[in-house]
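Before going further, learn to read the protein records used in this course. The integers have meaning only within a learned vocabulary of local backbone shapes. The record below shows the convention in full.
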Amino acid sequence: MKNYLIHLLNYELWANQRIINVLEGLDNPPARAVAVMGHILYAQQIWFGRFTKEPTFVAIWEDVPVSWMGETAERQHRKMVSYLNALAEPELLQSFDYVTSKDEPFHSTLIDILTHMSHHAAYHRGQVVQLIRPLIKEAPVTDFIVWAREG
């Protein structure tokens, strides 16, 4: 299961980078598209802090300059893969307690959180594509199967 989760994280990085590359190429990307892509990146950072118990110093909808997005995505990917590599398989199924951005307490397994993170990012990447589509010739394709075929 750990290898599959790392596989999923590798896909996430690829898909995020495709969107970020388009945003970087636009002279004036839509503010909402930049905000949503920033939300994807900072949500990943916040979730990482929840399951590692490390403090995070970002807000769920904090502005992220487009010029920082690529580095942010790569750094977060390295941290998550390193964290997963250090875990034993049974640890992926252990529940942990955390508090949401609305101060609500919950507990979930790491597998459930990483699955949520992937689906959450895919949902919002679709929103970004809809916002930038009128400004570009061809929309970036971020489908998992396309990445897997290119693998």
Q: What stands out?
A: Helices lie at 2-25, 31-52, 66-86, 110-132, 144-150. Strands lie at 95-99, 105-109. The chain has a mean pLDDT of 94. The chain is about 65% helix and 5% strand.
